[in-house]
Amino acid sequence: MEKRFNGNFTQQEPIPEEGIDAALAVLRSGRLHRYNTVDGEVGETALLEQEFAEMVGAKYCLAVASGGYAIATALRAVGVLSGDTVLSNAFTLAPVPGAIFSVGAVPIYVGVTQDLTIDLDDLKSKLPQARFLLLSHMRGHICDMDRLMDMCREASVTVIEDCAHTMGASFRGVPSGRHGAVACYSTQTYKHANSGEGGLLVSDDPEIAARAILMSGSYMMHGRHIAAPPPEVFERLKYVTPNISGRMDNLRAAILRPQLRDLPERVERWNVLYHVMEHALANAPQVVVPKRPQDEAYVGSSFQFLLPDFPSDTITGFIKRCENRGVELKWFGEPEPKGFTSRYDSWQFTSIERMPETDDVLRGLIDMRLPLTFSKRDCELIAEIICQELNAG
Ligand SMILES: *Cc1c(COP(=O)(O)O)cnc(C)c1O
């Protein structure tokens, strides 16, 4: 009989017991708001910021309500104004162009390579059109960051990093998010740390950090932050920075702190799962698995492969057969986006210019999540089913 996979592609691990205890302590105190502290007390949110800043080696960190909010705040904090153009990835998730739209700016999309990183040649040709690049390390694929930063520096383009899929990753030893002027992370359930909703923003620039803190809704209580610039920076900015509330609360921060501590161990487990998939599909005929550069230390929390020579209806049949056997694949080439598989041409709130090479990559792009509730054996079975169904078509 045909084997079937019975796991759940969206089931994450439980919150660590220590996080549950810390959350209960916050609930029992009643002090959920981050600035609601008693004398001498440092709230969970301020501690989370301090610990995350330390983890990635940043001077300043701000915890906020979501990853998308962190990105919009970062854009405002670096000075993006209504009507400005912002370069960004054609291959990313919808909250990225959405954040650009939310500040009244206009996205200009940059293409994607077969290795699923931003096309640096396309970027180079488009750099003169904008002063900002919102770089999304989509699905954890990190481009040659040294080359990208050199190009952007030369063109005086400020880089904002979207690290929703690279929390815990690095490039040539530099933690992801530490190349640009500011970086944003998400702690939404499907990312690398889970507080339901949540986001983190880091920077070494005191003005960017102070503006972000003031905008997030600090009500002149910025003194209760630890990973924040000194008071004089706030003095200069406090009357000219609007409050656009989007703080994180102590309950979420309490859940996140033990998860951050466990992140290196979780990254190792993700990469074991990723390597099972990579190894099994590397030699499958007609399948292209993106090459990952030696310089990239990635987090394999999802897996991608390309079927460049498959006609669309063949892919439709393949996806359906996998689904019938319990293997839930996402296809970025599907004519109608499903779930998170929207493409740049689905974001019709601004005008777009077609990119034929990017279209070719996305047409054959298959994606799957690898939650940590999967075992190595689960991934072996998933890969076996995928290989069988590729041959069955
Ligand atoms: C999830 C995600 C975001 C936004 O994070 P939210 O916390 O859901 O707002 C941004 N970029 C990418 C690539 C994401 O996957």
Automatic annotation (TrEMBL):
Coiled-coil stretches noted in the UniProt entry, renumbered to this chain: none
Gene Ontology molecular functions: pyridoxal phosphate binding; transaminase activity
Gene3D superfamilies: Aspartate Aminotransferase, domain 1, Type I PLP-dependent aspartate aminotransferase-like (Major domain)
InterPro entries with a match to the protein in the record: DegT/StrS_aminotransferase (IPR000653), PyrdxlP-dep_Trfase (IPR015424), PyrdxlP-dep_Trfase_major (IPR015421), PyrdxlP-dep_Trfase_small (IPR015422)
Entry keywords, A to Z: Pyridoxal phosphate
Record's keyword annotation contains Ion transport: no
Example GO BP: polysaccharide biosynthetic process
Top-level taxon of origin: Bacteria
Pfam family, one: DegT_DnrJ_EryC1
Family in the record: Belongs to the DegT/DnrJ/EryC1 family.
Protein name: dTDP-4-amino-4,6-dideoxygalactose transaminase
Originating species: Thalassococcus halodurans
